[in-house]
Design brief:
The protein is of the alpha+beta class and 244 residues long. The chain has five helices and 13 strands.
Length: 244
């Protein structure tokens, strides 16, 4: 009898009063945010103190682990390309006609001067293999009721020991994420907004990232065009395409 009561208590605590677990919420977010293929056009706006820098880019994705991006402007960044395949990333610099493998300490560096690091760009579907997800509450963000899911690292090889994510209860889109170090210090804040329904899925057309280790710094991403489940030539995701 005591064992049955213990099991019942575990189930109640595991799902709270919501009838869903943190792990199930993250899986629903992945399913909603991921498509077989995707093509997006975007504008990146980097704010550092009073300085504002703007860049435009086009990107292609295949699932969650494969992506290609090419910067179109400004002139000094035109032709810079990135290729991501699982946990590997390469960058092509047209000024020296060279492909560079991004690894080691480079992964923590700023990507194109933004608040995103290369490690942020490498993030994939492997969150649940690296983190334990726990549903800890609810809160409203911009009049949307959100689940609050706490992710705590269960492996050592992570940049952020803890992540707290606010997920729209109806659309299963993350609207905010706070990223923490092992010490508990908050390192970054990310928000998503301008949610559009495209091809039967909800998708955020606006995103901000703030690196709290840089003073007065924020990067905005405006998605100007998004297409899902379209044909993308396989050669798009090759190192040979970087030098074309």
């Amino acid at each position: 009898m005591k064992d049955k009561i213990a099991i019942l208590i575990f189930l109640v605590l595991g799902t709270g009063c919501w009838g869903i677990t943190g792990e199930e919420i993250i899986k629903k977010v992945d399913a909603n945010m991921t498509s077989r293929t995707a093509r997006t056009e975007a504008r990146m706006v980097i704010h550092v103190d009073s300085e504002v820098r703007e860049k435009t880019l086009i990107s292609y994705e295949k699932g969650q682990d494969t992506a290609y991006a090419e910067f179109l402007s400004p002139p000094r960044d035109k032709g810079v390309k990135y290729l991501k395949i699982e946990d590997n990333m390469w960058m092509y610099l047209p000024s020296v006609d060279k492909i560079i493998k991004i690894s080691g300490a480079m992964l923590r560096q700023s990507m194109m001067g933004s608040d995103f690091s290369y490690e942020d760009a490498l993030e994939s579907s492997k969150l649940l293999t690296k983190y334990t997800a726990t549903l800890v509450g609810e809160e409203k963000i911009a009049d949307r009721t959100c689940y609050i899911v706490d992710l705590v690292a269960k492996v050592k090889e992570v940049t952020y020991y803890e992540r707290k994510i606010w997920v729209d209860k109806e659309r299963f889109i993350p609207l905010r994420e706070d990223l923490f170090a092992l010490s508990g210090k908050k390192l970054k804040e990310m928000t998503m907004g301008d949610i559009k329904r495209i091809g039967g899925r909800y998708y955020p057309m606006y995103m901000t990232m703030s690196n709290l280790l840089r003073q007065n710094s924020k990067t905005e991403m405006f998605i100007t065009k998004a297409q899902f489940d379209i044909y993308v030539p396989p050669e798009t995701f090759t190192q040979g395409n970087l030098t074309k």
